[in-house]
Amino acid sequence: MSAADIDDPGKVNPLGRAISDAGVLAWRTLKRIPRTPDMLIYATIQPIMFVLLFAYVFGNAIPIPGFPGPRAYREFLMAGIFAQTMAFAVASASVGLADDMSKGLIDRFRSLPMARSGVIAGRVVGDVVFNAFVMLVMVICGFIVGWRWHHGFGQALAAFGILLLFAFAMLWVGALIGLSVGSPEVAASAGLIWLFPLTFLSNAFVPTPNLPSGLQPVAEWNPISSIVAACRHLFGNPSPFASPDGFPAQHPVWLSLIWCAAIIAVFAPLAVRKYRSATSR
Length: 281
Description:
Blueprint: H1 3-7, H2 14-35, H3 37-58, H4 70-87, H5 89-102, H6 105-111, H7 116-145, H8 152-180, H9 184-192, H10 195-200, H11 216-221, H12 223-235, H13 247-250, H14 252-278
């Protein structure tokens, strides 16, 4: 950037400035992780506990239609744990932004010549990188309990890409929640309380053919179910459907991408708009 551009802010490319600001704030988010090792520990322990509990406690009690044996459930389970963990990324964004709001840091950012979208995008991108590390830990844990992918590394990589895209989408939801509530404590509850029914009313832990008939269509069109089904399809893991001829069963990858795009399209503008109104008081 030249001195003339600094003297005349109108010459600065808004998109370039937003990307630059987002990169700086993403780096700020990542630099805080080594300084708060307890956050890293708890973020990795929770999904590991879910893997071990469901694999060894419930694995023999939940049959997979057409795939007998406890190992079938472990392979069925891992995509659900991956998707649940990426969905729970909502909490990190909501609590982090609520904490910044309560400390007045967001108001300080507003006083600087920064792109408003870059402030939130930086937080979101930093949390996506952090969740990529958490997912790596879960992959190792999955291999330990007997999970494998069967369609090659390329398709497995595509599944992990969908999971990170889903985390990116859900983090925008968390950003909106964090900017809308009054404290980090409220943000922690508001960010997760609605996710538990959404997660358990899906195919993450129980095959949809095992659910009551009235809940089966709801579960199969659930956005978390779409992400889980896409990952199982790409991993080559068991993925039974109550309606095998329906769109969710026939096109799980496309439906997962549609859900991610829709969530981003709705919540990213709302979060940026909320940031503007929340910091203009």
